[in-house]
Amino acid sequence: MEYLLTKRNTWILVAVLTLWRLYLSAELQLHPDEAYYWLWSRYLDIGYFDHPPLVAYFIWFTTLLSKSELWVRLSGTIVSLVLSGLIWHLALQLYRSVPIAAGSVMLFNVYPLTMLGLIVITPDIPVFLFWSLSIYLLWQVVRTQRIWLWYALGVTFGMAMLSKYTAILMIPCFFIYLVLTDDRWWLKTIHPYLALATGLLIFLPVVYWNSQHDWVSFAFQLRNGLGGESYSISTVAEYIGGQLLVTGPIVWIVGIYAAFVGLYRKDKETLFLIATAIPIIAFFGLSSFRKAAGPNWPAFAYVTFSILVTKYCLDNSSRTRRALWSAGLVSSLIISSVTTAHAQFNLIPLDRYSRELAAADATNWFHGWRELGTELKKYPGRDFAVTPSHQLSAEIIYYTDTAIQAQTARITRPSQFNLWNLPSDPDGSEGLYVWTATDYIGPHGKDFSASSRSDSLHVYRGANAVRTYYIAAGNDNMPRPFYSN
Q: Does the pTM of the predicted model rise above 0.85?
């Protein structure tokens, strides 16, 4: 197997997968979350309702020349290449083995998480980057004992915090590693604490923004991540199922087992990988007892996880372990290839098994928005829309090329739209109501439920309707008190 795990073959695979990601980035319509974050980039700020601001700045920078889907998403492809380089160098430093470095990079690149997840531009993209840079810098501190690297680490920690609040888990992860190894002597010096202070200083603008907005972002994420009123095993099972999917079932099971085995071996390199991966997976697993955790929430744990799996499987003469690594790589590649190809070409005939299954297909979120934008432009003199969803509002603004401004009704969950002073149509005479059959419109959303006076637009993928939009033109008798700022 070693003769295949070379630097040349690794970068050939990475190049091929990168071209595939670029193609998908250009062809798939924006996911509703992506459209929402793109809209953030049109209103740059030091904080937002849902997350810290860095994803908006990434999108702003890559869309300076064009706002097409490819450019909105370009950060994801760039970050995936940077991560591949970091994994290569980190694995080489840890184990001085080209096959392990090559295998780690290959494995990370074929994860379903990487193949599709690093195409979709979300706060996971910048946190992936700065989390991984922080891990790399910590190992450089351990390896070279150069003090200045602590302060570089402080900067990347701060940037990770500006990406996503869950980057705070870096603190316990690094502390666990230092406590479990002879590198704990660093804790008796001032440098780790000054590095932490540096990171928190960089994060301070987000704290200030929250203080000026009733702490809405912190409160929202605490409820979103740790909410829930009762304990449930089913949400834990859902979380584990999600993790099996984002990496591939063989890889995930082998990685968890390798972590347990590695704890008994207690070599510093393996403990480093375990401490920067498993606590994150475990944290969200524990939190899922109270509330379902998104499969992407522990995504950044899988950078060092790929090295852990590869080291366990390949640094041994056991044919069984090597076969497991090969099976994991191939199965993850198959899952990723089928999923991404289906997202673009609708390959899997889900409607043959169940119409409900076809309607629930998650890849439907990449279709049907451009058609809505084209339809809305056919309403003369209507340059404003009200929707029951912040995501739908963002899609309308993006796919009408800002020709129609949209606002979100206050009958739905709060979002950044609650904080923006966007244009409005006070008397309702020039606007449109736009909603879908699956939108929650609440008890006060009567203007979204009058299907008798609305037009409908059905968007299809093959023989199946992706979704049905309802469009109603406003008039003087349709007041809009529920979207006013």
A: yes
